[in-house]
Amino acid sequence: MSLIEGFNVPMEFSSTSGSCNLVLKCTADIIGQCPAALAVPGGCNGPCPIFKTDEYCCNSGSCGPTDYSRYFKDRCPDPYSYPKDDTATKACAGGTNYKVVFCP
């Protein structure tokens, strides 16, 4: 799950196989609290599509969290919030089944 490009629909992503207990979700009111610079009708863009700079897009391969990525991470800690966000890496074994719920 990723917020790098932005957010428009709350969702929950969970494993349904007994061997892996993984639940990722983002149900915060991101659109209602979206920073003005990122706000678009019906959503909240990520900073890369708006500003198109290395700081936000990480084109050089060397970047860290920004105020905007922290905005997303503070509200939804599970998804990726910037390109090198290794805190969001989660996985189950191959063959795991998943359930995706929009607007949980």
Automatic annotation (TrEMBL):
It holds the Pfam family Thaumatin. InterPro entries: Osmotin/thaumatin-like_sf, Thaumatin. Coiled coil: none annotated. Keywords: Disulfide bond. Disulfide bonds join 20-92, 26-76, 34-44, 48-57, 58-63. Gene3D superfamilies: Thaumatin (2.60.110.10). It comes from the Eukaryota. This is Thaumatin-like protein.
